[in-house]
């Protein structure tokens, strides 16, 4: 028996594209299903199979690469096929400690063509990165796309995803743009327990290390082809000088190509998160009305308590602006709100990455703009003097002292189970 993923059928039903495949050998342990489905919400039957299979191939490639497998398809777009070699090399540069192997074997390699139009499709989450890139490229964008991949089946519902679609659809209408919300099961295909073997050696999870960018971009490609578009825009997550890497990176995203002229632009890598905040603030002042964003990943509104909300609020505070104009609502004055919150929750708050990656840019701007911070000055003084790491250690130590016997009992039960 070989080590293979074999695409057997591509089927259509009610706007959904179904990819039926067989799996055999080591790679089969990584996949919990024999079907990938993508709900585009529109008829995709006119898209050539050589283009339509691009999402299937891209979503499977990380499994192929890490397990040295072969993926077999009937046909594939020539431009994209060539790009897969550059993509593997680019990801190999991100993760040099683990060799990425495997191959794609198509029966036919097909030349396709789209116009290289200036207007394009933008992958849009509704968060800070996406809004900053939208503002910077607004004249080149005609369609916003949001993709949700955590569905178990086509009847499944996800309230956060529904809220995302609703918010982005409303924003698109205001901006006189098209919006397409796409559902899929791509993030549910993997056996995380089996992938853990590779994650440890690569140094990153499947979602963060490979999947989300490769899935999002590739799922968009058939739509771009259907509309004879040429460009896909994706906002950067990190910035120049940040030593962390992830699936969405300029050296990887920009290697995607399809249908002769189709290409991807990874936008904003030169900007720090605080730079992006300033893009947002300047735009809000220019339009003279509220510009709400939602940065929470797992809530249908900004909770103002998670790491992403807190770092965004800090950035807005550093610019001295009204938080409510950007969709952040606190039920108490900001200093009171956060001193109470961290007194109760510092043990559970992710401090290390925040302090290293995001806070230096924010603190620099707070210092530069201190004279313009008005009522925020007391909060800024507290933030700059509060030792988050020390308070976190104290809180964790207090928790262990208080719950020592319960923790010990739980560990003994687990070891005996």
Structure, explained:
The structure is a single chain. The chain has helices at residues 49-52, 54-67, 78-94, 128-136, 159-174, 192-202, 206-226, 250-253, 273-287, 307-318, 334-345, 352-368, 377-385, 388-402, 404-416; strands at residues 4-13, 16-24, 35-39, 70-77, 103-110, 120-123, 141-148, 178-184, 231-235, 257-258, 262-267. The two termini are 37 Å apart. With 417 residues, it is an alpha/beta fold. A hairpin with a 3-residue loop joins strand 10 and strand 11 (262-267). Helix 2 (54-67) packs antiparallel against helix 7 and helix 10 (307-318) runs parallel beside helix 12 (352-368). Helix content is 45%, strand content 17%. It contains 15 helices and 11 strands. An 11-stranded mixed sheet has the order 5-4-1-2-3-8-7-6-9-11-10. The chain is globular. The mean pLDDT is 91.
Helix content: 40-55%
Computed over alpha carbons, the radius of gyration is 23 Å
Number of strands: 11
Approximate strand percentage: 15-25%
How widely separated are the two ends?
Answer: 37 Å
What does the average pLDDT come to? 91
Largest sheet: 11 strands, mixed
- The helix-strand sequence is EEEHHEHEEHEHEHHEHEEHHHHHHH
Poorly predicted runs are none
Q: Give, in spatial order, the strands making up the sheet with the most strands.
A: 5-4-1-2-3-8-7-6-9-11-10
Q: How many DSSP H or I helices?
A: 15
Overall SS class: alpha/beta
Query: What does the overall shape look like?
Result: globular
